[in-house]
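If your schedule permits, I should be very grateful for your opinion on a structural question. I have a record of one protein: its chain in single-letter code and its fold written as C-alpha cells. Kindly check, if you would, that the fold set down in the C-alpha cells agrees with what the sequence suggests. I remain grateful for any guidance, and I place the record below:

***
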Amino acid sequence: MDKRKIVYKSRLSVNAETVFSWHEAPGAFERLSPPWLPVHVVRRQGGINGGTVKIRIKQGPLVIYWTLGHDQYVFGKQFRDYQIEGPFQSWSQLHLVEADGENACYLIDTIEYELPQGIPLKFMAGFYIEGELGRLFRYRHRLIALDAEQKVRYGEVRSMKVLISGSSGMIGARLLDFLLTQGHSVVRLVRPQSLRSGDPGAASAGNVVWDPEAQTIDAGKLEGFDAVVHLGGENLAAGRWSEVRKQELIKSRVDSTRLLSEALAKLKQPPKVFVVASAIGYYGDRGEERLDERSPKGSGFLADLCEQWEQASEPASKAGIRVVKIRLGVVLSTAGGALAKMLLPFQLGVGGEIGNGQQYFSWVSLDDVLGAIVHALKTESLAGPVNVTAPNPVTNKEFTKALGKVLVRPTLIPIPTFGLRALFGEMADQCLIAGQKVMPAKLEAADYHFRDTEIEPTLRHILGK
C-alpha cells in the first residue's frame, strides 16, 4: 500500500479548551471551508463525536461528493475524520489539541491517505495534493486562532439570539457560521421565494418570513431577539443604472430597512441592537481627503441612496433600540463582490489599473466584516454610522500591484475610464472610478482588533498563496 502521511502543527495563543470547543460548535465545518474551494454541506448527522457529513466540492468543472465519519473522540483533546465514501482509496485526519500552559496550545492535524488505484504518476499527484493541503491548513490554523482569540477577548458574554436578513448572501452566509462558532444562536429572516427555491435552511421551522416587496412581515415571531442584523439589498454594481434600476436599488434597501425597523419599534420585547448595512458610497468621490464618521455626505445617486438607507432605520432608533449603521468598504472575498470579478482577468494577465490608479480603494476583508458586526453587537458604546474598512486604505495602483504580485501575473494593461463609462454609465463613475480614503475611526476607538490590516498579506490569506 502506498499510504502517505502529513502533519501540520501550529502554536495558538489561546487555551486548549477554547480551541477544542470551537471545533464542536455548529458552523465550524462550514467556517473552515477556504474561500478558493467552494464546499457545500449536502447532509449532516450528529457532530464530531460519532456523526457523519456528506459534502460537495466544486473546483472548476469538477464536482466531488465526499462522505466523512467522525470517531476517536476524546473530550477536550481530539477527534478524527475518516472517509466513508469519496475520492481517495482511504483518508484519515486526526485533529489533536495539546495544552501548552494555561493560555496557549498546539493544534496538530495528522493526515494519512491513499490515492485510488490506477492513477498514473502517483508521486506527482501526491506532491500536488500535499501542496494544496499546505494552502488549506495555513488558512485554517490562522482562522481558528483568530476566531478563538476574538471569542476569548469578549470574556464570559452570554449567548445571544440573533436574527439575520440576507443570510444567503456573501456576507450573511459566512456571518451565520461565524456567530454559531462564537456560541450564539441564529434565526434567518427569509423571503417567500427562498422557501419556494427548496433551500433547506430557509425552510427551517424557526425562521421568520417576510416579503419586503409586499411590505409584509411575520411580526409575531420577532419578539425576544437580542440582536437583528439586516444585510439585504440588490447588487449595486450589477450593471448600468437606468431610472428603473435606480428605483429597484432604492426599494431593495430603503423599503426593506424601513419595514423591518418599524416592525422592531412596535415590539413588546425589542432587540437591544439593530445592525444595518450601508456603504462608504455615502461619502461620494472625495479624492485624497481623509474621511471618518464625522465627514459630511458626498454627492451623487449612491450617496443619496446611502443617506435614505440609513434614515430608514430611524423608527428603531426612536424606539430606544441601539442602531449601528455599518458603512462597508470594498469587501474582499472570492465568494463574490469586486475581488471575485477581478480574478479572471488578473489571472489571465490582462488586469491593470483603472485610469491613472490614484483613486483610493478602501477595502476590508470579509472576516473583518464579520468580526466588526459581532463587535458592534457586543459593544454598547457603538451606535450610529460606523465605517467598516481596513485601517490602511490603498490607491487603485497599489491594490493592482499587490494582486498582480500575489497571483504572479503582470499588470501592465490599464483600464481606460472612458471605456468603463461607455459600458456602465453613471454606475462606473460612482462605483468603479470614484475614490474614498475612509478610516474606521469608531471601530478603532471601540478597541476592535483588525485581523487584516495590509493588502498583500490579506490577499495571500484569501487566495491561499
Remarks:
- The two ends are 32 Å apart (CA to CA).
- The chain has a mean pLDDT of 89.
- Residues 122-153 form the longest helix (32 residues).
- The chain has two domains: 3-153, 161-463.
